Amino acid sequence: MDRAVIGSLTRAVIYISAFLIGAVLMGFEMLGSRYLYPYFGGGIGTWAGLISMVLVALTIGYFAGGNIVDRYPSALVIAVATGIAALYLAVVPATADGLMMSILNSMGDGPYAILAAAAALILVPVSLLGMLSPVCVRLLIRSTEQTGRTSGLIYGISTIGNVFGTLFTTFTLIPWIGSRAITYVFCGVLIVCALSLFAVSRQRP
Fold it and tell me: CATH number, domain at 59?
């Protein structure tokens, strides 16, 4: 296959994955509130715990992704991270209730318990998905003159995905199919992204 075709395919897969993973990331944050609500309520304290934990997880993902891709500059990095995040989401519906109950019984329903519950749901998958942006920027930059444009494009596409995931999950998916089913849908989307990224990582331009 022509190297230009390979390059265009890789860029297209990365851009589409940036949108979809961004949508799943924020969509799962909205779902987090549904998993926490029966045990910790839906007040401002619960949302503060969720948002704080998402920010912590993204920070971890940004640092980890930036460091790893400098050593291994391949789409395989984000493919593996996305695949592991998908597997994590796959077990959430079956384990969340028992985990939330265990935290509630052992820690109560105060701020530390909310943070612990939010971390149990969000920290691992969101940290893994947070690796996306620095990895994609590193893979797509071909010269120093393109650094600002490329990073702006990746973060912009990912943020548009964030907005879409937030609104579509809240106003369409949750009323339509419910939190557990949505989690499996998100898992499926991540698996598709992981397989696509793995496929382009095997190409040799």
Answer: 1.20.1250
Residue type, 175: P
Contacts of residue 95, defined as CB under 8 A and 6 or more positions apart, other chains included, come to: none
Task: State which H helix or E strand residue 159 sits in.
Answer: helix 147-168
Q: Given phi > 0 = left and psi -120 to 50 = alpha, else beta, which region is 72?
A: beta
Structure tokens at 79: 């493919």
> What's the total number of domains in the chain?
1
pTM listed for this prediction: 0.91
pLDDT reported for residue 82:
97
Distance CA 205, CA 57 (A): 34
- The three-class DSSP label of residue 73 is coil
> Mean pLDDT per 10-residue run, the chain (205 residues)?
58 94 96 94 94 96 93 91 97 95 95 96 96 90 70 93 96 91 97 95 66
Range of the domain at 107: 3-136+145-201
Q: Are 129 and 21 in contact (CB under 8 A)?
A: yes
pLDDT of 120 reads 96
